[in-house]
Specification:
single chain, alpha/beta, Rossmann fold, 6-stranded mixed beta sheet, 8 helices, 8 strands
């Protein structure tokens, strides 16, 4: 049977300060998409509200704007996928073997409070599927509780965009909270690479997380290996 992956992307286009745009960090989607496509997996894109997905402008500049991101951006059929994403209530979690939360600072706003995404994540996890995220995508795991009331991330090894990386990216004054700190507050065993912005991915059972945009390919490869 063909494996199916659900990608999750944001609908938010700016920080609290609307003069500062943000959105999906495109390469975090495209790198994973390419890995999963090479394995012959079917792929679907969903977002908290469905429909249009804004793109993070900084992800469309060198060095983040690599060949996979450029190819996607230049392909009308691929870009159309980001105009017509599915809402959580349109998703039957039974149809998916893994969920993959992409990042970009925008997800800090609309991922954590999405009960629909929490439902899908819980259902995939509880029947032995894979839950994964890259970079800020781990904000989508902050508030997901299992059927017994425990937080999914409690006691689990997790990585994601580090506070040090927020400071180096000069957005520490713009972000709505410290995602690394929030993850630790929930009992997650947060890890990060010794150096900022290098690829780093962590596997804890069926939970696979990557630290930053450069970790998307490695994260997807680890998901594919588990599948």
């Amino acid at each position: 049977m063909t494996r199916r992956i659900l990608h999750v992307v944001t609908n938010v286009g700016h920080y609290d300060d609307p003069t500062h745009p943000t959105g999906l960090w495109l390469s975090e989607l495209t790198h994973a998409w390419e890995v999963f496509a090479e394995h012959g997996f079917e792929q679907v894109i969903a977002s908290p509200a469905g429909g249009h997905v804004p793109l993070e402008p900084r992800a469309l500049k060198f060095p983040n704007y690599d060949k996979t991101a450029k190819a996607w951006h230049a392909d009308p059929a691929k870009m159309a996928l980001l105009e017509n994403t599915k809402r959580p209530d349109e998703i039957d979690s039974d149809e998916f073997d893994a969920i993959y939360f992409t990042g970009g600072h925008a997800v800090m706003y609309d991922f954590p409070g999405s009960e629909g995404l929490q439902r899908i994540t819980r259902e995939i996890w509880e029947r032995g599927g894979i839950v994964s995220s890259v970079c800020h995508g781990y904000c989508g795991l902050l508030n997901t509780r299992l059927s017994d009331g425990t937080l999914l991330v409690e006691g689990k090894k997790v990585t994601g965009f580090a506070w040090q990386e927020e400071v180096l990216a000069r957005v520490d004054k713009l972000v709505p909270y410290n995602a690394e700190e929030e993850m630790k507050k929930r009992g997650a065993l947060y890890e990060k690479a010794k150096l900022p912005f290098v690829s780093y991915a962590v596997v804890d059972g069926n939970l696979v997380t990557g630290q930053n945009p450069g970790s998307a390919k490695e994260t997807a490869e680890k998901v594919a290996a588990l599948l």
